[in-house]
Amino acid sequence: MNTVIQLLQNRVSCPKLVAPAPNQDELNAILGCAMRAPDHGRLKPWLYHVIQGDALVKLGDVFVQALDGQNVANDKIEKTRNIPLRAPLLIVAVCEPQANAKVPAMEQVLAVGAGIQNMQVAISSLGYGSIWRTGQMAHADVVKQAFNVSEQGEIVGFLYVGTPEKTPNKPAADIEQYVKYWE
After folding, report:
1. What is the biggest distance separating any 2 CA atoms in the chain, rounded to whole angstroms?
2. pLDDT value at position 115?
3. What letters, b where the CB count within 10 A reaches 16 and e where it falls short, cover 51-83?
4. Residue at 154 is within a domain
């Protein structure tokens, strides 16, 4: 069977990621795959922020700022501060929708999502692991401000990247349960 099909059918999200992360050449190849995502109108509504090293700690501080005004326990503050440290490399995928009569904003968000999927496949093909997460931090104003996301823009996902500590065993879904042939 085609190796691309095998790769796609075996790809899993890996929640426990450690060093090493992809090197710069590998990262450039991964990001290049994001640029090949389907993009109606060639609007390129995406922007990808690469975060590693000390910048992960800085992002943890931004995440803690997002908790301001909430009555949270100290352990929740520390857990939130450590969220970016789940992997040695983090890519924040942002959609900045362009005004276009033929391409609605939702389709542009989907283009960014397709870019994330392309990156996940590329990451897996290089022997690394990843997990795409969103959560409340993707919607927090202070986090969006840290990445200069406009009022109409949004963070589509946080893509954590590294070497899987353990690759999860995920059985394949039964396609008959999720596919219908319309006549």
Report:
1. 57
2. 98
3. bbeeebeebbebbbebbeeeeeeeeeeeebbeb
4. yes
Given this model, what pLDDT does residue 73 score? Answer: 86
Q: Running DSSP on this structure, what letter comes out for residue 67?
A: T
| Residues 151, 9: Cα–Cα separation, whole Å | 37
Phi then psi for 163, rounded to 5 degrees? -95, 130
Whether the pLDDT of residue 7 is over 80: the answer is: yes
Burial 113-127 (b: 16+ CB within 10 A, else e): bbbbbbbbbbbbbee
User: What domain count does the chain have?
Assistant: 1
The whole domain housing 52 covers 16-167
Q: Is 42:26 a contact under the CB 8 Å cutoff?
A: no
Instruction: Compute the distance between CA of residue 69 and CA of residue 13 in angstroms, rounded to an integer.
Output: 33
pLDDT digits (tens, 9 = 90+) for 26-72: 999 999 999 999 999 999 999 999 999 999 999 999 999 999 878 88
CATH number for 88: 3.40.109.10
Residue 70 lies in a domain: yes
- The verdict on residue 150 lying in a domain is yes
- Residue 85 CA to residue 182 CA, distance in Å, equals 46
Q: Is the pLDDT assigned to residue 167 strictly greater than 90?
A: no
Helix axes 3-10, 105-125, angle to 10 degrees: 100
Residue 157 covered by a domain: yes
